[in-house]
Amino acid sequence: MKYITTSAEMQAIDRTSIEEIGIPGMVLMEKAALKMYDIIVERFDRSKKICIVAGIGNNGGDGLALGRMLLEDGYDVTIQIEGNTLRASDQFMDQMNILFSLGYMVVQEADYEEYDILIDGIFGVGLSREVGGHYAEVIQAMNQSDAYKIAIDAPSGICCTTGSVLGTALKCDMTVTFGLMKRGLLLYPGNDYAGEIIVADIGFPHAVVKRLCPTAYTYDMEDLALLPKRKNDSHKGTYGKVLIIAGTTNMAGACYFSAKAAYLCGSGLVEILTTEENRTILQSLIPEAVMTTYRSGNEALRLVREHRKACKTVVIGPGMGQNDITRTLLEDMLKQYEGSLIIDADACNVLSEFQEMLPDAKADIVITPHMKEASRILGISIAQINEDPFACICSYAKENHLTFVLKNARTLISSGERLTFINSSGNNGMSTGGSGDVLTGMIAGLCSGGLDITEAARLGVYCHGLAGDLARKEKGTYSLLASDLLNNISGVFTQNIPDH
After folding, report:
1. pLDDT at position 495
2. What is d(CA 467, CA 465) in angstroms, rounded to the nearest whole number?
């Protein structure tokens, strides 16, 4: 697990480390500059002309320290200062004085077309106002250069809490951010402006981070250790049964993707409940699944009540359509089912009609809407959700006693607690039909195999993205299909994981 900070949270960690723990700010600044120096020396030789554009705050101070280190090592470096140094931070002036004592000069203007590398030290993570005036002109001029662009801590102009562009922002090839990942570098459009992101440890004490506890986190490969362990002395019943209530006429694919993914994620047995028209094609596509079909709404309701009794986990919604059968089955599941219930797709689309039932539902519920479905559920526009998606889903999850998986370019997950999960895996090739059905099945399979429903959602989303990243290596992003996700799930589970 890796914490993700807002701008304010990162500033609090920095301030506490300095003022309460007693780590001198100049020590942290020197370590930040040294981390950047090491990266640049590793990647670029001394033939490259470098321009460091430094603001007058501590971010600019990092830039001055970096410039001094590179100059001392023989690099061709120009340091440009942007801003009135009469208003500069104390640490910036300390670094400026060190430069002058060593005989190095700074400039106020530079022609960015003359350089191979531009290093951005204008604004740091604390930027909260729109960039305008001369600063905007400088950033725009830097953007027009063909030079390789590196940001110190964050691209100037990006809000490190929301990822939004504050008027204008520098489009970077690389960002070296210090201590912890920032929300605005992971969320979009900030992530697009950051380029490659390197999180560099500069010595913020773990005790400080733990005490201040940022409100968001993500997973990395080490968290695959959370996957349910397989037992030698086991049978299919050991790993639970999943019921997939999905599909309508001409929508057999949703059933297939969810059912196959549930099997691939560890479920012992998967049963599909769908319309009779889907029987033949599904029996051909996934013979491992138990097939139960209905011809009418009354028959569907009878079968759901009969077959869910043996199922630890139930999925409802993929490919069902927004019809009376979907409404009837969802209402009955909310009233009666006592296991783990995953509400997806068309069941999300009609969920707003049954909102009042959610707090008293007997099941442990996960909902998995994309943004448009979430808009219907929350009763607000997509634009309003984007203003603060963290607050939206946390509030709804807490009020309705469920886990909210908001599917987006960066999927967010909240169960109403203080911490929100931000997914860091995946790519834009996964924006294709059937991808969400695969995710739903993966969550169901992990839950059936032994994880609680909230952990299954978090790990399912992360592994879903990893499967997409593996698929991208084979197919690229233009040609990636949902079936490619299925084909790469097993590859996710064999990465750095001991044989269970």
Report:
1. 76
2. 5
Q: Give yes or no for a contact between 9 and 201, defined as CB atoms under 8 angstroms apart.
A: no
pLDDT tens digits for range 248-283: 998 999 999 999 999 999 999 999 999 999 999 999
Residue 233's Cα: distance from chain center in Å? 37
In which element (H, E) is residue 100 found? Answer: helix 90-101
Sites in the chain below the pLDDT cut of 50: 497-500
Sign of the CA dihedral with 468 first, then 473, 474, and 480 last: positive
Which sign, positive or negative, has the C-alpha torsion 50, 56, 58, 64? positive
What does the DSSP assignment read for 248-285? -TT-HHHHHHHHHHHHHTT-SEEEEEEEGGGHHHHHHH
Give the number of other CB atoms < 10 A from CB of residue 298: 11
Angle at 367 between CA 244 and CA 402, to 5 degrees: 120
Question: Using CA atoms, how far apart are residues 17 and 244, in angstroms rounded to an integer?
Answer: 51
Nearest to 270 by CA among 235, 312, 233: 312
Give the full edge-to-edge strand order of the sheet including 148-152.
76-81, 49-54, 117-121, 148-152, 174-178, 196-200
Closest to 425 measured CA to CA, from 403, 409, 445: 409
> Running DSSP on this structure, what letter comes out for residue 500?
-
**DSSP secondary structure string for all residues of 49-72:** EEEEEE-SSHHHHHHHHHHHHHHH
Amino acid identity, residue 136? Answer: A
Model confidence over 472-497: pLDDT tens digits? 999 999 999 999 999 999 999 987 54
- State the pairing for strand pair 364-367/2-5: unpaired
Distances (CA, A) of 375 to 85, 259, 350, 407: 48, 27, 12, 12
| Cα–Cα distance measured from residue 433 to residue 430, given in angstroms and rounded to the nearest whole number | 8
Reduced to 3 states (helix: H, G, I; strand: E, B; else coil), residue 407 is strand
Prior bond to 155 cis, omega within 30?
Answer: no
Nearest Cα neighbor of 343 from 325, 361, 318 is 318
- The phi, psi pair for 199, rounded to 5°, reads -95, 115
Which spans in 175-251 are helix H? 183-186, 190-194, 206-212
User: CB atoms < 10 A from the CB of 301, how many?
Assistant: 16
Residues 6+ apart with CB under 8 A from 350: 322, 326, 327, 330
Question: Residue 133 and residue 358: Cα distance in Å, rounded?
Answer: 51
DSSP 109-146: ---GGG-SEEEEES--TT--S---HHHHHHHHHHHHS-
